[in-house]
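INFO  loader      accepted 1 record
INFO  loader      residues=390
INFO  predictor   begin
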Amino acid sequence: MGRSHEMSLLPIAGQPIFDYAVVTPSSSTYLEGLTMVLDDTDSWITYKGSGWTSKSGMQFSAGLPYNGTQRGSSNPGDYLTVNFEGRSVAVYGLLNQLPGKLLTTYRVDDMGPAKFVAYDGSQTSEPDKWALHQSFFKTDLSAGKHTLTITVNEVTESQVFWIDYITFEATSATTLTQPGGFEDPDSSPLGSKIVGAIVGVVVIIFVVIYLISRCCWRRDPWEILFERMPGILAKHNAPRGPVEVPTRPHMLRQPPHLASLAPDDMTLFELQSAANALREENQNLYNASSTSYHSPPYHPRGTASYPSHNYLQTGYDPPPASSSDIHIPLLAVTSSHGSAAEVAALRNEIERLRRENYQMQVTRNPRRSGAIDAGPADAPPAYNPANYIP
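INFO  predictor   done
INFO  writer      dumping tokens
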């Protein structure tokens, strides 16, 4: 526990001029109302930038800097910060009358910056002329935690910004340890706000898209297909070379060529899911086109429920199929990829269903077909002069 002390100044010769005395307080010292001094080497001060230089032991005819040290920078953009708890703050430094301009700014918390022009470039050059303990900035504050930021704005020719010490008036809450609860000096409040705004906008956009898709979009069979094939979307995001895109005269909406979309490493279950989705699409196309004809349900080719006369009531031919098309029923999965015969059979079935899907879209509405040219029978007769009366 610290004890109280008494100091006496006894001049021996001359007439000394007393300015101030500096003491180091103990943990039990009551600090309110006292002026606290932070030397340029104090750990409370954080320097940012590559131009800072520290000097000590320099001798000047005008006296000595506080604690015999000083720190300077001639690099515009360098800055320092200090966190403290008090009700006022002041900054002191050294000035050397060299050619050039020297401009610094001082900002406390979110207040506007205060400019200090030490030299405007019009001064005469006197390299040996130094001014010590010069007041660069001072302001009163409300009692509480504050952050002081000093920025080197303009330094030209031989000028250097030299800082010596910072003082602030302590409050009843001031301690001998640097107060916490401050933001990182490297963090940019404006940048944080911008990033937060961007994240918020992105989240809102995704929410709106999700709501629109749930309320207005009809689920497509291919969406169901991709849901049944875990990981297929991630696989197709990577480039796999050119994809064959079939071209047809009218380019009606049709399922893609699954042989080009399905990689060789698709499992038997994935191929079966693809075939089931195509069968469901064909069933929907048939039902949508045949409601006015009261036609029987659609049955895939190659099954016992596929009599050709079931399609005579629809007004158009049933879904086409070649003699080589064979309906492959769902196979029991004996392994993750199945045998070569099972995979080949399923791929053939997928291709057949795709062709059948396309043909059903072309023929589902006969009015889609273009006008048919009647041919030469509708052309006017050839010119014959005998048919005309002069």
